[in-house]
Amino acid sequence: MSGIEGLKKVLESIILNPKYAPFLAVLKAARNGAVYGAKVRFPHALVMIFLFRSGTVQEKMKLIFRATRTHAHNLAKYASIYKATMLLLRYMGSEPGKEGPYDTFFAGLLGGYVVFGRRSKRGHISSVSKQIVIFVFARVVLSLAELSIRPSAGIIRNNELSKRIGHDAWPVFAAVSWASVMWLFRWYPDTLQSGLRSSMDYIYVQSDHWDGLRNFLVYNK
Question: Which domain of life is it from (predicted)?
């Protein structure tokens, strides 16, 4: 058996040992967070930056890799903090080794504050962090809205009323959301996230200007 094969066997015996599984899960979560963050951010940044940012190709590529690195780092760090906190709380509770009912909330609270809630040394919060938090917030609101009309858990206990609200709520939510964002873009565009503002400017503002057939059909003026 070669030295490499022996080392591989030793490492596999460690990672497959159930005794170490809770601790190794922290490392695995960090790895998965980094990979997922890179997979999600790179194509998004590639499209958005090349479409809406000015500058040379080299400058744009730097922005793309910076956004990708930030997203991957944030998710890896958050996953590590969350998993490590869950592990710590499991052994600090009234029943050691058993997960408490609010452990996930407090672990998420700590990770959210440390990774996404704090400002940089210059007092800024990165646009990538804002986008991730807004994405999560939107999903949380939708989930809580659905939970609120679930007869077994929400404030609406009547099955028929719950179904009716569930059926009609989405059209109202969609209409009000688009009405609100168009009003904000028209009168308070500085309050909108920069990526959203850029895309809306491209669609609704730059479409008002042309001086010939070429920049009417092929590209903007």
Answer: Eukaryota
B/e letters for 148-164, b = 16+ CB within 10 Å, e = fewer, are: ebeeeeeebeeeeebee
Buried b (16+ CB within 10 A) or exposed e, 114-123: ebbeeeeeee
Rounded CA-CA distance 10/48 in Å is: 45
Question: Residue written as tokens 């452990």?
Answer: 103
Q: What is the reported pTM?
A: 0.80
Residues across the chain: 221
Q: Angle at the Cα of 78 (from 33 to 122), degrees rounded to 5?
A: 115
Q: Are 165 and 149 a contacting pair, CB within 8 Å?
A: yes
Most confident of 78-82, 161-165, 191-195: 78-82
CA dihedral 90, 96, 99, 104 (to 10 degrees): -30
Instruction: Give the tens place of pLDDT for each residue, 182-206.
Output: 999 999 999 998 878 988 998 999 8
**Torsion sign across C-alpha atoms 47, 49, 54, 59:** negative
